[in-house]
Amino acid sequence: MxxxxxxxxxxxAVFILLIAVAAPMRHLVAGxxxxxWQDEWxxxxxxxxxxxxxxxxxxxxxGEAISNTGFQKKFPKIKFSVVxxxxxxxxxxxxxxxxxxxxxxxxxxxxxxxxxxxxxSKVLEPIASGFILPEVKDESKWWQGKQHFIDPEGKxxxxxxxxxxxxxxxxxxxxxxxxxKTYWDLLDPKWKxxxxxxxxxxGGFAATRDRFFYHNPELGPLFLRRLxxxxxxTLYARYPQGEDWLAxxxxxxxxxxxxxxxxxxxxxxxxxxxxxxxxxxxxxVETRAKTMVxxxxxxxxxxxxxxxxxxxxxxxxxxxxxxxxxYLDAGAEGSLRIDVPKDDIPARNRLNxxxxxxxxWNPDFFDMKPIAKVINEAQADAAxxxx
Length: 387
Description:
Elements (H helix, E strand, L loop, with lengths): L1 H4 L2 H23 L5 H16 L1 E6 L1 H8 L3 H4 L4 E6 L2 H13 L7 E3 L3 H8 L3 E2 L8 H4 L10 E2 L8 E2 L3 E2 L4 E3 L23 E4 L6 H11 L4 H11 L3 E3 L4 H8 L4 E3 L2 H9 L4 E3 L9 E4 L4 E5 L5 H11 L2 H14 L29 E3 L9 H18 L1
Parallel strand pairs: 1-2, 1-3, 9-10, 9-11, 13-15
Antiparallel strand pairs: 3-14, 4-14, 5-6, 6-14, 7-13, 8-11, 8-12
Helix pairs in contact: 3-13, 4-14, 6-7, 9-10, 10-15
């Protein structure tokens, strides 16, 4: 019986069966079983190389930093093109292009307010629709166990950097910073007429600063009203005018951009920033204008996917941190990916355990009308008292 079983056609059938069983097992042993995402990734890379280009619309220094990461080296067949301008200029440009039937941008890094305008104009694609790599999809890799967004739907404007919000600069010859425990200390009558403030109407840093004050439950509209009505602050709208005045001693305190203060300090001028953790109202966390969006109807959709997945991966974010030290005014800034080491981040730019942090990208914060109303009324009251 055994002889019959192993003879002729039966022997051939057994041999074929053994091969069929052994083949997939050989792949299992070798670790060659492929996950679906791997095939999707390879197809995306191949299609991106055929497209041959990705176009990033970005704020200038950030675009320069991103373009000098290792993306181009890793994907040499995908040309990386950067168009730089201010956020508001990008918004105007994109909307004009689209009215003309042109779709030129693939992805964008526009800061805070400008991408929110693009979101409201419905020109963005949910950014997660471009995610392929499991490590990019995995929200546990990000600060607080989630990916952070500016838009109320939590889909379109991804925040990938978080840094402490520095609000108060001071002249080191005129001010002892240890005397400040709360932001209410700025309203001490001895500082009246000695504070220079970046103009609230100038946007950018001023908007982030005033949102922090207005929405902080320990400060609120009353703090802003008293600051602009009682303290007689001098406003300026162009960097580094206020910082220069601070350095010369014309003013003692400055509610101004941290980059300008840091730069002046590095030049040996008598200025510095107060540590935000010394104020009891908590520390704001800002994006430092590091947000990423995916444009809808992107001209190079596969290249956009490849870039987003690489840039938001551990490798890409680590690379961006390193380039930041060279190309960004504030130096290296920490990725919100918690698996990216922060050893190369200056202590001032790190998010540390045990600190009460207040993220400033809450979509409820972005309506500036009530904030502007409080400030305008305060300034009007101050003008009446002066008259």
